[in-house]
Amino acid sequence: MDASSLASKAYIGIGQIRPLGAAPEPESHSGCGTSGGSGKSSCGSSGGPDDMPPEIWEKVKNHPCYSEEAHHHYARMHVAVAPACNIQCNYCNRKYDCSNESRPGVVSQKLTPEQAVKKVLAVASEIPQMTVLGIAGPGDSLANPKKTFDTMRMLHEQAPDIKLCLSTNGLALPDQVDEIVKYNIDHVTITINMVDPAVGEKIYPWIFWDHKRVTGYEAAKILHERQMLGLEMLTARGVLTKINSVLIPGINDEHLIEVNREVKKRGAFLHNIMPLISEAEHGTYFGLNGQRGPTAQELKVVQDACAGGANLMRHCRQCRADAVGLLGEDRSDEFTLDKIEEMEVVYDLDKRRQYQDKVEVERQAQQAAKQEALSAQTDADGAVGDIKVLVAVATEGGGRVNQHFGHATEFQIFEVSAKEALFVGHRRVDLYCQGGFGEDEQLPSIVNAINDCHAVLVSKIGACPRDELKAAGIEPVDAYAHEFIEKAALSWFADYCSRVASGEITHQARGDAVIRQGAFTAEAAA
Ligand code: CLF
Ligand code: SF4
To answer: Which stretches within 61-140 are classed as H helix?
Structure first.
């Protein structure tokens, strides 16, 4: 595919929303930059306050999915109140329930709306940086409208500072837009994997529509039309819409570029292209029939072709329908129904605000550190040409390099050049350190997961993994422990460039990496 010719323009900002039924704006008129007056064209998850109108920034700044920067600091939670689904996707099997699994559609405890509200208040009192409540299944939120909207209504009344968010396959969406607006649900995700029913019939065997089961091309055509209509209606009502697309190699990989174009035209704020998770033991149609997921490079090629970086979400963790915590961590085990019963729940709005003010100070310090590192870039960086490399980072959150190599269950991946350190994804891994000892059998799989990276930044690392990483051509770096990630990555890069420029080392391209398909290990999830 010719990625360069497919580089996209920015998304339409809320200020440019056209009335429903009006002809789509020409693409060249789209983009947040023009509506925001900043002249910049980044409007997606990497965008900041200068990139979008203030009312949009207000909506996304504390949402860990809609702002990449926010995901280092703010947490989300899901409540599993929506068990039913009105379609079947070939990558889904909701019967499979494993508490060590981490992918959408999988959940341990289904809740009533009352239980869900109780749980949200309990989590909010324990985790003050939890800013967003999402309903994402385990079925489809809008195929269970009563349970979904009862939960949203009660939360709207009892916890007014929590942002409300839902995700849907879109089939029932056009009928529910009024309710979505009524309860102030500002963020809606639609999973859109195709804009051509001929592609869609390979992904969706059936839908339940108009009181009957519809199959094949006809099913995919109805779903597509409902998704497009729902997206247009949400845009017209000022609801920020994110599109999730599952990249299924050989089925919709190149087609996702067309999806990206169509959803942008209809006002989507963000596009999240996620890898297919497919293993036979998940019992899904794709898993059982040998459909593979993409490699890290395959995913990045499509993501880069769709967005050129700025308006694409790359930090999705494909959460469980009952996930709690920062993206990439899951604290749902701490908030089971029996544990909540024993908790003293104090929903203290002032305390939450005070805590979040502290987070803001830290967040601004992170930005300042990044700017400082960028302005400190020297001519030596440019002297070695236009090098761009990937680095893996072990972090526990807060935007810092603050995790021991052996304790990482995922690495964040940053693309670093002399101009920028840009978050481009994450890689899940098995825990290296188990029961206080390094598990050398885990190392090859960890190396495979970050094999496209030149370095791994950690707070600490033992001698054995250090040697093995070096042997694999990945530089272990603990010199920037507890520094902000972007500053650390840029500082390491400057040092790397000067070593290349002096002839001490030779710059070499890295290979591909493997996206981990399985669950966290039990120890990792504990
Ligand atoms: Fe949940 Fe989704 Fe809202 Fe986020 S998740 S309903 S927008 S609060 Fe986020 Fe999780 Fe990815 Fe979803 S990381 S799966 S994109
Ligand atoms: Fe599963 Fe969601 Fe697809 Fe329904 S829409 S089949 S819950 S992945």
So the answer is: 113-126
